[in-house]
Amino acid sequence: MTDPTAGSVDTDLLAEPRRVVEPGMAARVSAVAGPVLQGMGYRLVRIKISGEFGCTVQIMAERPDGSMQIDDCEAISRALSPVLDVADPIERAYRLEISSPGIDRPLVRRSDFERYAGHLVKIEMAVAHQGRKRFRGTLGGVEGDAVHLHRDDTRAGEDADVMLVMEDIADARLVLTDELIAESMRRGKAAERELKQKLGLEPPPPPHAKKSDPAKSSKPKPKLKAEKKKNAPKNTKEHRLAADRPRRGEIDPIEGD
User: Among 50, 166, 255, 257, which has the highest number of CB atoms less than 10 A from its own CB?
Assistant: First the structure.
């Protein structure tokens, strides 16, 4: 397992607070798990408590760059289990589960909403907006403390563009689309290549090489306009013979009599 704190870690991303948080018992688990994860170099994404297998506490986490490996989940479980046993935020027996966010991940931080602008999302509000709690549409970025959403579930007379306050959101999740899968694959390949380079398993890129940005579109570049054809030469043998015919009293066969 590689240490997520090794090398250069974006401390601002690591310490960035969540804007979409859980209430009740999940909030108590978050208060215990969050600092432990941050101390290990991970970010807490979400806490979910369900009745599966009696009681299951799912803790979703990630590295600051959004990646997460099986070894990371195992390391978090070993470090967090004794801390939760001592803090005892849940009064009954439970099963602890550590997982990665996945492709259709929850969006909980400002950087999440900014990073996935242009993708399709489902949002459920804790506080109703214009008498409505559920929204679906394309993310349009963040303005102040609110998320811009262009809805695709509007009814007659409803505005397609809405601004939803992040702190009023109960759950925001990406919708699985072909575009999202393609972007996730690009990000995964870039992260894997960077990890191999750090471990010395792959040579580093040459100094002059540009670092690819998986967030950018990989659409083919438009073809350049064809250059204008140069004028045909006017001093060929055919032109010289045609110019000499009048001098010899001959008639141009093209013009006729």
Answer: 166
Tokens of 217: 């579109």
| pTM to 2 decimal places | 0.71
Amino acid at 217: S
CA-closest candidate to residue 41, choices 82, 20, 21, 69: 69
Q: In Å, what is the CA distance from 164 to each residue of 76, 127, 167, 212?
A: 33, 10, 9, 33
Provide the terminal-to-terminal Cα distance of the chain, rounded to the nearest Å. 94
Q: What is the pLDDT of residues 89-140, one digit of tens each?
A: 998 899 999 999 999 999 999 999 999 999 999 999 999 998 999 999 999 9
Residue in the block written with tokens 């470090």: 79
Q: Would you say the C-alpha torsion 97, 99, 105, 111 has a positive or negative sign?
A: positive
Alpha helix ranges (H) inside 116-155:
none
56-62 and 95-99 beta bridge pairing: parallel
Dist CA 45 CA 73 (whole Å): 13
Q: What distance in Å separates the CA atoms of residue 231 and residue 213, rounded to the nearest whole number?
A: 44
Half-sphere exposure of 169 (CA within 13 A, CB side): 26
Cβ neighbours of 131 (radius 10 Å): 5
> Which neighbouring-strand residues pair with 149?
139, 162
